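Lay summary. Proteins are chains of building blocks that fold into shapes, and those shapes determine what they do. In this project we predict the shape from the chain. Here is one chain we studied, written as its sequence of building blocks.
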Amino acid sequence: MLHLYDQRQAGNRFGSRRHFLSVGSLLAGGLTLEQMCQAGSAAGMGSLLRDKAVVFLFMHGGPSQFETFDPKMDAPVEIRSTTGEVQTNLPGVTFGGTFKRLATMADRLAIVRSFTTGDSRHDIKPIVHKSTNDANLGTLYSRIAGAHHPVTGMPRNIALYPQAVEPEAQPTTMNFGKFGSSGNYSSALAPFAPGAGGNLQDDMQLSISMRRLNDRRKLLSELDQLRWQRDRSDSTSLQTPFRQQAFETILGGLADAFDLKQEDDRTLARYDTSPIARPDNISKKWKNYQNYVDNGQSLGKLLLLSRRLCERGAGFVTITTNFVWDMHADVNNAGVAEGMRYMGRPFDHAVSAFLDDVHERGLSDKILLVCCGEMGRTPRINKNGGRDHWGNLAPLILAGGGLPMGQVIGESSRDGSVPKSKPITIENLVSTILRTLVDPGVLRLEPDIPREILQAVSEWESIRELI
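And here is the predicted shape, written in a compact code that computers can read:
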């Protein structure tokens, strides 16, 4: 059995999922990869899972509802969007002026204008919330579906930070440790985080340090031997469909999913946000300068990587960059007009590229994209040109997943301070996401499903316009 592990943990070679990958047994319970493939084929994943995936793009810091998807241009100047508005392809619906590309595809979006996160604290409550047993939302999905895809071996639950695609990006900072929370569930169900200390990172093409080069060469040599044995063998036992599938998974399928170099150059260019947020176009007077740079250099690649992972069996991918949507116009952060140049323009480019890409690949009904932060922004602009924390109303958009798109859900008050229609809460959002991924009727018949998961899927009210 081939093992990939960190030499720094050699004394504890088989002790932690975060420091090794046993290629022959990717699942807990001692199943070999061949057995996984056979079990996956026999089960067909059942009718419990809906053969869909979620990409949750978390807008860390709290985006403004006004400069994003509810510009309120008929409100007084101290309230309405500082970036103006742009007409979408939905009659009478406008977005903040930064989102010119997304405005042309609003018919592929569900725009929620009555979403409330409940408080104005900096945290990650739409992803890790007391309602989800303080576990990453993807962990709940993994508790239902299993930690890895039974055919490809892909982790079901993945968290992507800038270092997953930009090794030179800053280390992950505020609240990032909590993204990896598995709550009271097994740590094996926590998000796999390439580039952030995850168990595969040091052994994959994403980032190989010089001190690991010899190990890398040995690994490649062993893989070459496996390829040779596979290609030359006429043994029936080696050529069964399930063993062949297992070989293909070991020999690059899983690793290739994380390697953006496998993509066509035109696709890479399509997603590339780095020219939009060039470091020399960002003011260095803000302490968040490097956060703005990291976001601009990585966001498009992170969304591209998420698509690749979903294609290969990931079920829940969380994307977040460092703390960047916090637009107070203070010593740390730019104000909303300047901040939307740094944040809104890369977001507009990357998300629209993602929507076009998954549409062209026939994946729009398979992948649900969710975009929101932990709160919104104050209705009135402060004296420095920023907006401060606001928990009563926040922006939220969804796209794909086979859900009815091309609609505005809910309505905000005239000053954008509170929902005018029935509030959409985090619990409503969680239920909608989980119902997209699993069949609640079948889930109720499954043994040993934790009560809190059954409650979130079956008892919490979903966003009724979507489910």
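What the prediction tells us: The first strand starts at residue 3 and ends at 5.
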